[in-house]
Amino acid sequence: MRELLRFIQRIHFLLLFLILEIIAFSFLVSENSYQRAKFFNSSRKVFGQVYHAYDKVAQYVSLKQKNEELVLENVKLHNHIPSLENSPSVFDGDSLAAKRFSYLSAKVINNSLYRRKNYLTIDKGSNSGVEPEMGVVSPTGLVGITRFTSSNFTSVVSLLNEEIRISTKIKKTGYFGPLAWTGADPTEAYLMEIPVHVNISVGDTLISSGYSAIFPEGILVGTIKEYKKKPGDNFYEIKVRLSVDYGRLGHVYVIDNKLRNEQLNLEEATAND
């Protein structure tokens, strides 16, 4: 403290000069409309350039992520080309698969990661045809399910929510069970109800089962990170590494199952029979 006082004492004339200059400049700007206008115009220009430069830097930093997502999208599309070419019925006007699902792109404008019930918000709503209970995916995998919509926005329950369960299957075996998040790590979840007699391995791919009216079959969910058999239990405890990095979500796709109501009505009638 004593050293600080000595330092201020040494430069007190300079400090006094700077304070007087600031006061004089403030009087000049406040009392003279021309100088005031010039000052604020210059300030807006400077801050505008700063924000523009920041935006450019932010866009450049995110280019790597965007390119990775585009590459993954292209890989998916190219992987589908051979099967589509060998299956002309997919393009048939009467084909159920061709009629069933459509995709709408949207941008994530809000997101949470570390609550017990996490949500995200996207910039598309009922005006764009988005409704509750639609699937949401990203180029890297399954994201969540739409919850509430307004005219221009939609809230989405992400996989990082203790209340959500997604029917997920092991790609190589076809065995399926519910995927649940425990509220601990935003990169991990647990796959349940897989019998211990099923042959599984670390690194096995997990995909959506298609056993719902929300998600089509085959959307990437994650990979098996580790698993163990619990004594006296007939099911594995399987820890899953999620394929989606929720901390970097930018653009997503909302899935519209055009035959959803037909499917749900039939299943409800069957259940009530």
Question: Any overview of this molecule?
Answer:
With 273 residues, this protein is of the alpha+beta class. The chain has helices at 2-10, 12-31, 33-85, 96-100, 260-271; strands at 101-111, 117-122, 135-138, 141-149, 154-161, 166-170, 176-180, 188-191, 205-208, 220-229, 236-242, 251-257. The chain has a domain at 100-271: Thrombin, subunit H (Beta Barrel), CATH 2.40.10.340. It contains five helices and twelve strands. The strands form two sheets. It has a six-stranded antiparallel β-barrel. The radius of gyration is 28 Å and the shape is elongated.
**What helical percentage do the residues reach?**
25-40%
**H/E element string?**
HHHHEEEEEEEEEEEEH
Strand line-up across the major sheet: 1-2-5-4-3-12
Strand content: 25-35%
CATH architecture of the domain at 100-271: Beta Barrel
Strand-pairing-aware structural class: alpha+beta
CATH homologous superfamily of the domain at 100-271?
Rod shape-determining protein MreC, domain 1
The CATH class assignment of the domain at 100-271 is Mainly Beta
N-C termini distance: 85 Å
Mean pLDDT: 81
* Largest beta-sheet characterization: 6 strands, antiparallel, barrel
> What is the alpha-carbon Rg in Å?
28 Å
CATH topology of the domain at 100-271: Thrombin, subunit H
Low-confidence stretches: 81-94
Tally of DSSP helical segments: 5
**Which shape, going by the Cα principal axes?**
elongated
List how many beta strands DSSP finds: 12
